[in-house]
Design a protein that fits this description.
Blueprint (H helix, E strand, L loop, with lengths): L1 H15 L1 H10 L1 E2 L9 H20 L9 H10 L4 H28 L8 H24 L3 H15 L5 H9 L6 H33 L10 E2 L4 H12 L1 E2 H26 L22 H12 L2 H25 L3 E2 L6 H23 L13 H4 L4 H12 L2 H4 L1 E2 L2 E2 L9 H4 L2 H10 L13 H12 L7 H7 L1
Antiparallel strand pairs: 1-3, 2-4, 5-6
Helix pairs in contact: 3-5, 3-11, 4-5, 5-6, 5-11, 6-9, 6-13, 7-8, 12-14, 16-20, 19-20
The protein binds heme C.
Length: 476
C-alpha cells in the first residue's frame, strides 16, 4: 500500500514536475533568527485564502440584485446549513486580514525591510493594502441593508463635495445618480471579480519578489545597507547561517496561522456575523450610518474636521498617505535598518496606532453619530397612551427622529436634545424644521404625510418643562 502511494506520487511528480516547481521555494534559505516577527505576511495570505473560500461559498447562495440580495442573505443567515457561520467567517476573516496587513506593514517598516533591494516588495504591499480596504468597503454594501446602503449614500454625498471631480466620483460610486440596483451590481463586480483578480496577480508578484530577494535578515544596529555590497553580504550570511524555509522556518507560520483560523472560527461561531439591519427603504431616513470598524476611524475623522475642509481631506488625505507610503523606499533605500537607529520609524508606527485608535474610539462612541437602536419611548415619557401626542411619538420613532434626538434621555445625540422643545419653538418653527431639515438633519417634506406631520408637531409641542412645584401651588 505504502509502496503504491510512493510510486503514484513519483509518477505524478515526474509527469507534472511538482517538486521541481515548488521545491526551490520551500527550500529557499531564510535567516536563522527570523522569529515570530515574521509570521504576519503568511498570516495575511492565509486570511486572504479564508476570504476566497468563504466568499465563493457565499456566492453559491447570494444574488446580487437589489430585489433579492437582502432576501438571499437572510436565507444564508437563518436557513442555510452553516450559513451564519460562513458569514461570520467571512466577516472576521476580513477583520483578520486588515489587522494582519497592518501588523505586516508595521513590522517591515520598523525593520527597514523596504530598503534595497526590496523596494518593490514594499510597493506591491502598499497596493495590496489599498485593494484590501476597497474589498472591505465594497463588501459592506453587499449586505444591502439600511446601514450598508446609507453608508454608501453618505460616502457618495461626501465624495460629491470634493472640488472639481466630486460629481464624477459620486456618480461613479453609485453607478448613477441614486443608490439602487446599478450600485449593487457595480460593487458586486468590483468585490468578486476586479479586486480579487488584482489581488491574485499582486500577491503572486509579491511572493515572487520575496523569493527573489530573500527574507530580510533581522536588522543589526550599525550594519548599513549599501546597494553595492548588500546582495553579496546577504548571500554569505545565508550560506553561513541560513535555514531552509521548509521545515525550519515554516513551523512558526504554521502555528500562528492555525491559531488565527481557530480564532476566526470561534468568533464566527460565538459572536456571529453582523446582524442584518432592515432592508433599505428610502422613506425611513437613517442618515449617516457607520461603516465596519476598519473604516470607522476615517469616517470619524471626516465627521470631526470642519465641513469646508471635508471635501479636500476626504480625497487628498488618502492620496497623500498613499504617496508617502509608496515613496518611503524611494526616499530612503539605504543606510541603517535597525529601529534603534531609526527612532522616528518607531514614532511613525506609534503615532499611527494612537491616531487610528483614538479616532476609532471617537467613532465608536460618537455622540455626533446617530443611535441606531434607541429603546422605544415609554408612555410615561410620552405622557399619553392615545391621541395625537401618542401617535406623534410613534411617528417620531418610525421616521428615525429618535435616532438623532434625545427625548428625556432616550435616543441619539446627533441633533439637539428635544426634551423641552415645546418651550422654545412655535408650531410653525417646528413644521418648517421638519419639512426643510437643517445642517445634518434630512428634510422630511417629501417623505411625511400631512397627518403624520400634524401628530409629530403635536408631540413636539407637548415637550415642555413641567411647572415648578412651588409655582403650581401658588396658582391654586
Ligand atoms: C440625521 C440626524 C437627524 C434626524 C434623523 C432628525 N434630525 Fe432633527 N436635527 C438634527 C440636527 C443635526 C439638527 C440641528 C440642525 C441645525 O442646527 O441646522 C436638528 C434640528 C431639529 C429641530 C430644531 C431644534 C432646535 O432646538 O432648534 C427640530 C425641531 C428637529 N430637528 C426635529 C426633528 C424631527 C421631528 C425629526 C424626524 C422627523 C428629526 N428632527 C430627524 C438631526 C436630525
Amino acid at each position: 500500500m505504502k509502496r503504491l502511494l510512493i510510486d503514484t506520487w513519483r509518477w505524478l511528480d515526474d509527469r507534472f514536475g511538482i517538486s521541481a516547481l515548488i521545491g526551490p521555494s520551500l527550500k529557499h534559505l531564510v535567516p536563522q533568527d527570523a522569529r515570530w516577527w515574521y509570521v504576519f505576511g503568511s498570516a495575511t495570505m492565509l486570511a486572504f485564502i479564508v476570504q476566497v473560500a468563504t466568499g465563493v461559498a457565499l456566492a453559491f447562495s447570494y444574488a446580487s440584485s437589489s430585489s433579492q440580495a437582502y432576501e438571499t442573505l437572510q436565507f444564508i443567515t437563518n436557513e442555510a446549513p452553516f450559513g451564519s457561520f460562513l458569514r461570520g467567517m467571512h466577516y472576521f476573516g476580513a477583520s483578520a486580514m486588515v489587522l494582519m496587513v497592518g501588523a505586516h506593514m508595521a513590522q517591515t517598516f520598523l525593520f527597514g525591510s523596504y530598503k534595497f533591494p526590496r523596494e518593490m516588495n514594499w510597493t506591491t504591499g502598499v497596493l495590496l493594502l489599498g485593494f484590501t480596504l476597497v474589498m472591505g468597503f465594497t463588501g459592506q454594501l453587499l449586505r444591502w441593508d439600511q446601514t450598508a446602503a446609507w453608508s454608501v449614500v453618505v460616502a457618495a454625498e461626501q465624495a460629491g463635495r470634493v472640488p472639481l471631480i466630486g460629481n464624477f466620483l459620486a456618480q461613479f460610486i453609485l453607478g448613477g445618480t441614486t443608490i439602487g440596483g446599478a450600485t449593487l451590481s457595480r460593487f458586486f463586480a468590483i468585490h468578486v471579480f476586479i479586486m480579487p483578480a488584482l489581488m491574485f496577480v499582486f500577491i503572486g508578484i509579491h511572493l515572487m519578489l520575496v523569493l527573489r530577494h530573500g527574507i530580510a535578515e533581522p536588522p543589526t544596529a550599525g550594519k548599513e545597507v549599501d546597494p553595492k555590497t548588500y546582495r553579496h553580504e546577504y548571500e554569505e550570511l545565508m550560506q553561513k547561517t541560513g535555514h531552509p524555509f521548509w521545515p525550519d522556518g515554516a513551523w512558526r507560520d504554521f502555528v500562528f496561522g492555525t491559531g488565527l483560523i481557530i480564532v476566526i472560527a470561534l468568533l464566527a461561531y460565538f459572536v456571529g456575523p453582523p446582524v442584518l439591519d432592515k432592508p433599505p427603504d428610502p422613506s425611513i431616513l437613517h442618515a449617516d450610518p457607520r461603516p465596519d470598524w476598519y473604516l470607522l476611524w476615517y469616517f470619524a475623522l471626516l465627521a470631526l474636521i470642519p465641513r469646508e475642509l471635508e471635501g479636500y481631506v476626504m480625497i487628498l488625505g488618502p492620496v497623500l498617505i498613499g504617496i508617502l507610503l509608496l515613496a518611503a523606499p524611494i526616499l530612503n533605500n539605504r543606510g541603517e535598518r535597525a529601529p534603534s537607529r531609526r527612532p522616528w520609524s518607531i514614532a511613525v508606527v506609534l503615532l499611527s496606532v494612537i491616531m487610528i485608535g483614538s479616532l476609532w474610539i471617537v467613532g465608536a462612541n460618537s455622540p455626533w453619530s446617530p443611535n441606531f437602536d434607541p429603546p422605544p419611548l415609554t408612555e410615561k415619557v410620552i405622557g399619553a397612551s392615545s391621541g395625537p401626542v401618542f401617535e406623534g411619538a410613534r411617528v417620531f420613532q418610525a421616521k428615525g427622529c429618535l435616532n438623532c434626538h434625545l427625548i428625556s434621555g432616550d435616543g441619539g445625540r446627533r441633533g439637539p436634545d428635544l426634551t423641552y422643545i415645546g418651550d422654545t419653538l412655535s408650531q410653525g418653527d417646528i413644521i418648517i424644521r421638519i419639512v426643510n431639515g437643517g445642517v445634518n438633519m434630512p428634510a422630511y417634506g417629501n417623505s411625511i404625510k400631512p397627518d403624520e406631520l400634524e401628530q409629530l408637531t403635536a408631540f413636539l409641542q407637548s415637550r415642555k418643562r413641567p411647572m415648578p412645584a412651588g409655582l403650581e401651588t401658588t396658582h391654586r
